[in-house]
Structures are given as structure tokens and as C-alpha cells.
Amino acid sequence: KIQQLMQALEEVEQFHQIETNLQVKQFLFDTRQYLNQMIRIVNIKDEYLAVLSLVSDISYGCELIHNFVPLMQEQIKQDPECVLMLRSTFLKLSSMLDLPLIRINQASSSDFISVSEYYSGELVKYVRTVLSIIPRSMFLILNEIIDIQTNQLQEMPTRVEKEH
User: Fold this and answer.
1) Residue 99 CA from chain centroid, whole number
2) What is the pLDDT of residues 80-126, one digit of tens each?
3) Can you list the positions of beta strands (E) in 28-139?
4) Which of 7, 69, 74, 87 is most buried, taking the most CB atoms under 10 A from its CB?
């Protein structure tokens, strides 16, 4: 069906009115390119998907991720908006829960729930550790504001005397 769509788009492109309109012609070309990509994606063999799944699996990195906490916290300090980008990192880390749970489920073990809770708890603890810099940074900034307000700013009189 996708190939039929591509052929239909090529036929539409041959019409005289469309041949002269560069914008429409570019749109049709882009659409055909996207359809081509869809065909390639649909034709990916299962063995390649399995290899991709293994390569992108991060369960091997459970111990390594703790080395990155100071780096992540420093980045959050410098640019608080980067927390939004960490969301995808945390989601990827949740994939380390998949492999052990799949194996336990395949074995029909009754430990599925307890192991799931353990790994979920570890992930939550890690996320809390990384994000703990946010309240600390906020309170440091608040302390600076308090210091400026109490020690450096002079109080303004409530009533200003009018000069004659």
C-alpha cells in the first residue's frame, strides 16, 4: 500500500499545475521520502530488532550510573532547564528493570512483585539523589537573598519628608 501511495504521488506530481508549483513539488518529494523511510522501518528483521534491544539495554550499567550523579547535579546547578532533558535519561534507566523482570516472569516465579518493587525503589532512590540538588540550590539562593535583604539593603523610611 505504501508503494502504491508513492506511485500515486509521482503521478500527481506530473500534473501541469503541480509541476510549476515548487512548494507543492517539494512537499510531494518530502512525503515520498518519508514513505520510503516507513518501508525501510517496516522491513527491519526481527533479529536486528533483538540486537538493537540488547545494545540499547542499560541493565549492565547499574553500577556505573552512580558515577554520573555529581556531573548531573553540576549541570543542573549551571542550567536548571536541563532537568527536562534528564527525563529521557531516567526513562531509559527504567529499562534496566525490564530484563530481570522478563526473566523472572518467564520462570513463573512468585518473586516478580518483590523484585519489581526492589528495582523500582532503587530507581526512585537514584532519581531522588540526582534531583536533590534542586532544593539545596534553591535554599542557597534564598540564603543569598536573605543576606542581601538583611545586611546590604538599607531600609527605606515609611514616610518621606517633603523638602520646602
Assistant:
1) 21
2) 888 888 888 888 788 777 777 777 888 888 888 888 888 889 889 99
3) none
4) 69
